[in-house]
Every structure is written in structure tokens, then in C-alpha cells.
Amino acid sequence: MARRATDAGILAMECYFPQRYVPQTALEEADGCAGKYTVGLGQTALAFFDDREDIASVLLTACARLLERYGVPASAIGRLEVGTETLLDKSKSVKTTLMAQLFGAEHSDVEGVSSTNACYGGTAALLNSVAWVESSAWDGRYALVVCGDIAVYAPGPARPTGGGGAVAMLVGPDAPLVMAGPRATHAFEVYDFYKPRGDTEYATVDGKLSQDAYLASVDTCWSRLKAKLGAPAAAEQLGLNGSPADLRAFDYVCMHSPYNKLVQKGFARLLYGTAALGQPSATSVLTLSRRAAVGDFADDATAPRFAGDAQRWAGVPPAKTVGDREAEKCFVGLAKPDFEAKCAPSDTASRQVGNCYTAALYMNLLSLVSAKASSLMGARLLLFSYGSGAVATAFTLIGREPSGGSALALPPASPFTLERIATTAQLAERLTARTCSDLPTLTRALELREERYGQAGYEPSGDVGALAPGTYYLAAVDELHRRTYSRK
């Protein structure tokens, strides 16, 4: 039995995204709406898959890259947890396909299955895995978390919000990204984005409702987290040391990103702030001398930075401003300096790849680590995860320099560090090395996916030559819907 773990969190990260993309400007030109997708959505490009890749191959490629590049053998993995909403089967977990390709029969003592709740599955998988490492059941091996999705929409205004990709994370003790402090969750019933039909890959979406549910979830999770951060034990654990429990307590923010403009709106809600719902206000636990330092609008609308137009909403319950375009514009503008400093460093991949559903938040986290690397040591990171239907959670990671201990003794020349995550991922280089495609190629690829969905007894016709070296791909589907895979 292994000793109880300390400083559990993310040891290593890798990702996978399609090799081909179409600039959003090409979609704007085709739809006659210049600026709608680049400015209105805040997106740069749309990555896409054809029928040669399914969710199993996408997750396989991400996992294989992590295990190979960090030199982690299959025998070192004691838990494999998957987060995805892109289902191949209504019963069988995709986890077993990953096991068959990467582990083999001799390494079958591996816990975990798949978590599904729209874009929240990756967070559920991560929380489960960290809890396992911290528990009495932990046997000293690593947990491997992989989350990813293929986001596709029917032709029309929603198609530019698609995309896809996967992120794999190694979880264990003595982590460079340790999960610490309280977290806050908001779970509620809403039909904003859901997939009730088994005959199509496309979701049923109420775009306005989904945006409002996302922003309301930011409000609720933020209010609850602030209340919990006000407790002395939580403040001490996160090293707040008398700092106010507001946005200034965090050095960086990573948020779930269906598209970048929604992230900007969500971040602005953090500045707006909210009084805690059904709990003591975070500010109520602050001393009177610190009260004037609180930076949220809902806590102190009289602060100098809120002078001017923002006063129109002084005293207005935050819930009444969700969906208010004038309030939104005002607070997005006020939050812009903080957004550029705290949140923009995390949006590199998501703006160029598109929506990765369960992997979106973690693609943003990897972008942040790639941009800042060792400068994140000692930094507090606020993460917000949202999955339609809906479940949302706000939680904290802290960057640190590992002491050198881990679940297993790997070569000391290759420690798990923030710098190693950044240099191993080579995120900027891989984004640059992709192939820029045209609109007819995108259209044909998505038509292939639509034609093949749910079929049996076929070999995909997508171009294997378009895949990057080392990519897993779907080789065939037999008459009983059993799938086989190959690797380029």
C-alpha cells in the first residue's frame, strides 16, 4: 500500500488536434458576413475531421503522445479516466478501446471508465482521478485522464463554432499544477444543448439559452467560491495572506471556451461579482479594514474604477444583468485590461482549433502553461468548467516546483515540471505546422462524417495522407459495428 499522496495534481499534459483547418475569414466570405466569426465569435480558424478519425482515435493519439514523450510505461498507470460526449456506443466505454491499443492484456488492472455530461466530462474525470490519488485506495501508480470531442454542426450559423481535439493529463503527487483549496459547483436542469437523437451527430441547440446558462453559472460558481475562500482555512491553504477574496486573488484565469467572445463575457462576470447565493457573502468574512479593497462591482460599486457608465447597474441584482447587452458591453470594456493580463494567455489553441467540448478548458490550460511555463510557479490559477444540461465548477490550481518525488521513480533527468510540459507540447510549432484547407475540403469532410454516422460494414474513405505522423485512425467498421484502428 502506497503512502498517502501530497500535492496531488497534474504532472504532465499533451494534446491532439486536427492537422487541417479553414480560416474563419473563408467562412465569413462564403456566408457574406465579414467580421461575424472573427470579431463576433473571436475565432481565428476552424479545425476539422473527416471519417478517418473518430473519438477513439483522437483520444488514442493524445494518450500515446503523452505516454511516449514522457516515457511512462503502461504498467505505471493504475487509473484511466475518460471525459467525452462524442459517443460511439450507448453502452461500451471508449476506455476499453484505449486499453486494447495502449496497454495490452497483461496490464488490465486499471480503474476508471467514461464520464459524460456535455463539456463537463473532462473535469469530472480530473476530479475523480485527483480524489483517487489522494485516497486510501491509491496504489502508488499514476492516473491518466484524457478528454476530448469532435464538435460538428449542420450547415448554418452554428458551424463556425465547431472544432475538436483532445488533451491527456498525467495525475499524481508532487505535481507542478497542484489542485488546492475549495471548489464550487452549480448543477441544474436546462435544455440549452443536448443530443436526444441517435441518428445524427448534431446536437439540438438553443444558442441564446446556452449563453445565458453559461454566464449565470459563472455568477453562481464565483459567488460560492468567494464565500468559501473567505474561510480562514481556505485562505491559508491558497496563501491569500490577507488578500481580498476577489479576482485579484488569482494570477491567471482559464475558462471553458465554446468560442472566445463568450470567454470574454464570462470573465467580465468575475469583475461584476455576485453576492453569495444562500451562503454568507465572501465580503462578510473580511475585516472592515480590508472591505475597501474588495474589487468586485457587486461588493463595492463605489470603487473608482466603476465610476461612470457602470453606475447604471449599481444595486441591480446580478442575475438581472445576464443577457443585458448594454451591461455586458460596459463590463467587458472595464474588464479588458485584466482579461488581457490574466485570461488571454490561455486562448492560443482554442481560437485556432475551435471548440473541443470536454477538452476546451484543458486546451486553454495547456496554452497558458506553454506561454508562461516556469513563471507560473507560485501562481494561483482560477479554472471555470461548464457543461450544458448543466453542471459547472470553479476550482483552483497552483503552480509549483516539484520536490522530485512522484508516484514512481522515473529518471531524475526528466522531472515533471511546468517547463517540461511547455517544451514537450510544442504547441505553437504544431499549430503553425498545420495545413490550411479550403471550404470545399471542409464541406466534403463533414459530409463524409454525416454519411457514415451509425453505418456498419465499411472502410472510411478520408485521406490518411492528410494526417500527421503518429496519428491513430479508423481502419474499418465491420458488419457488427466493431471498429479497428491503425496508426500512421
TrEMBL record:
It comes from the Eukaryota. Its EC number is 2.3.3.10. The active site is at E85 (proton donor/acceptor), C119 (acyl-thioester intermediate), H256 (proton donor/acceptor). Pathway: Metabolic intermediate biosynthesis; (R)-mevalonate biosynthesis; (R)-mevalonate from acetyl-CoA: step 2/3. SUPFAM superfamilies: Thiolase-like. Keywords: Lipid biosynthesis, Lipid metabolism, Steroid biosynthesis, Steroid metabolism, Sterol biosynthesis, Sterol metabolism, Transferase. GO terms for biological process: acetyl-CoA metabolic process; farnesyl diphosphate biosynthetic process, mevalonate pathway; sterol biosynthetic process. Residues 183-488 form the Hydroxymethylglutaryl-coenzyme A synthase C-terminal domain. GO terms for molecular function: hydroxymethylglutaryl-CoA synthase activity. CoA binds at S210, K261, K265. Residues 6-176 form the Hydroxymethylglutaryl-coenzyme A synthase N-terminal domain. InterPro entries: HMG_CoA_synt_C_dom, HMG_CoA_synth_N, HMG_CoA_synthase_euk, Thiolase-like. It catalyses: acetoacetyl-CoA + acetyl-CoA + H2O = (3S)-3-hydroxy-3-methylglutaryl-CoA + CoA + H(+). It is an enzyme of class 2 (transferase). Pfam families: HMG_CoA_synt_C, HMG_CoA_synt_N. PANTHER family: 3-HYDROXY-3-METHYLGLUTARYL COENZYME A SYNTHASE (PTHR43323), HYDROXYMETHYLGLUTARYL-COA SYNTHASE (PTHR43323:SF2). Catalyzes the condensation of acetyl-CoA with acetoacetyl-CoA to form HMG-CoA. Belongs to the thiolase-like superfamily. HMG-CoA synthase family. This is Hydroxymethylglutaryl-CoA synthase. The lineage of its organism: Eukaryota, Haptista, Haptophyta, Prymnesiophyceae, Isochrysidales.
